[in-house]
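A protein record in our archive is deliberately plain, so that people and models can read it alike. The tokens are whole numbers drawn from a learned vocabulary of local backbone shapes. For reference, a complete record is included directly beneath this paragraph.
>
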Amino acid sequence: MAPIRPRRREIGATSVRPDRLAGTTYDARLLDSRNDADWMTADPWRVLRIQAEFVEGFGTLAELGPAISMFGSARTKPDHPDYALARDIAERLVQAGYAVITGGGPGIMEAANRGAAEAGGVSVGLGIELPFEQRLNDWVDVGINFRYFFARKTMFVKYARGFVVLPGGFGTLDELFESLTLVQTHKITTFPIVLMGTAFWSGLLDWVGEQLIFHELISPSDLDLLQCTDSPAEAVASIVAADRAANGAPRNPADDEIVMPGA
């Protein structure tokens, strides 16, 4: 019997076997303060590689059109209710005229890419090199693999008109609070951020009110930058309404309840 070859791992635009890799990622080597000058001599092309990631992202997504970025856990299983919820939301976004952007991995990302693809929309996956095996899921139509998180994060924001955030871990929280900071500091404007799952997010929102607002670390109005709901129709309707307002389009009452055919 022929030996089983290990699955390949995506590193930027390259696909390689795990046993052919260095023990760390490009991000880790870039951020390692113990070798803060080493990269200038050991890897003088790193700056150009970073530049190339931005050029690749801009060139690939420049004509994408209206899109929404969706975030959530990579650990969510296909039989979990959140997986079905992500598919539903992605389908509704496609019906409303949007492409769907995810991190391109498993779990919620796969569900959102699947929902978009099955609805006939554009399904985008922005992958990242990780120390453990991960590849773009099979439902991605347009995929880009990044070495550096900061280049990837730029694409999530630059080509999206809003975020939908489902339950997730540290990575999801990072994406959520980064987007909140960009909106709060007016780096991006009229950018709706919708949290899906009131039971999951209510504790965090309560803490923001009881600690951050109480201690005057943020303004009370900053909490209004978030919308939390359990309704896919409400989530998509709020995104469409904010997008119309941002582009000066008149409000359409039909947007208040965007429902998939047969739903």
